[in-house]
Amino acid sequence: MRSLKQYLRKIIYRIPGAQAFWIELIKRLGAEGKPDFSGWGMTTHTYTPWANGRANSLGRDFLEANSVLVQKVQAGEFRLSQFDSVQDKKRLLDGLRWRHYIVFWTARWAATVPASSAPNFVECGVCDGLTAYFALRAIPDRRDFKIFLYDAWEGMKSEYLLQAEQRLAGSYSHLSLEQTQRNLAAFSSGAVFNRGFIPQSFRETQSPSSVAWLHLDLNSAIPTLAALEFFFEKMRAGGVILFDYYGWHGYAETRAVIDKFFAQKTGLHLPLPTGQSIYFKR
């Protein structure tokens, strides 16, 4: 049935003006069938980069990383504390695949951009280490790599939140540094755990002098801006900054400080339908 629809689509698209008609017809008839992906606020009927039998090498690597993670979570070897109440962890992780593919893709890009020395990765807002896992799995050769992980591993404080963000005070109080370290034990030789609240922790912990990949998942404006100001000049040309909550409703303050910060910069800032966004530094 799907091959027939693909053949008809190919024929119809050759007729001028027919593409919009076909899309609307498919929508009204519900003829697309089961979506290829549904989760984390989006549903698509297009092939995913990791689809079995169609994936390139990067897609296959991601699929393997995701499968290993699912096995670890189901075996209790990787605890997702923020999702403790979710019974079907595999279904949860399946719904996060597009988000994690973006993490994987950007980390692979940053790891393979030519440079005179092995690049450093940074993540601000680590939680249980879920996205750090995918970033580290994306690195082809981790022998000389370092990832610097920043998190308070305790509840968010009012003093680091704008008035419109005060509802978030106390969030993530369930986190544990020790649990995150256990989750990422396989990468312990290259991981530097920096505990504390941003921006104060930048003055009190170990930081890299250059950065190739920066992931900001801080859910609030003040630490997001502080992290950009602290790391931007350390980002090497071709480096990537990945934002987790750029396009999500309820985080307008974070989006506003990001947009203002990049207003006079020359790189490329790309918002994504997952709610994430990517900045490529020139």
Describe the structure.
By secondary structure, the protein is of the alpha/beta class. It has 2 domains: 2-33, no CATH class; 96-280, Vaccinia Virus protein VP39 (Rossmann fold), CATH 3.40.50. 38% of the residues lie in helices and 16% in strands. The protein has 10 helices and 9 strands. The chain has helices spanning 2-12, 18-29, 57-74, 89-94, 97-112, 130-138, 177-183, 200-204, 221-231, 252-262, and strands spanning 37-39, 42-44, 120-124, 146-151, 191-195, 211-216, 235-243, 268-271, 277-280. The strands form 2 sheets. It has a 7-stranded mixed β-sheet with strand order 5-4-3-6-7-9-8, sandwiched between helices. The chain has a two-stranded antiparallel sheet with strand order 1-2. The longest helix has 18 residues, at 57-74. The protein starts with a helix and ends with a strand.
Secondary structure elements and pairings:
Blueprint (H helix, E strand, L loop, with lengths): L1 H11 L5 H12 L7 E3 L2 E3 L12 H18 L14 H6 L2 H16 L7 E5 L5 H9 L7 E6 L25 H7 L7 E5 L4 H5 L6 E6 L4 H11 L3 E9 L8 H11 L5 E4 L5 E4 L2
Parallel strand pairs: 3-4, 3-6, 4-5, 6-7
Antiparallel strand pairs: 1-2, 7-9, 8-9
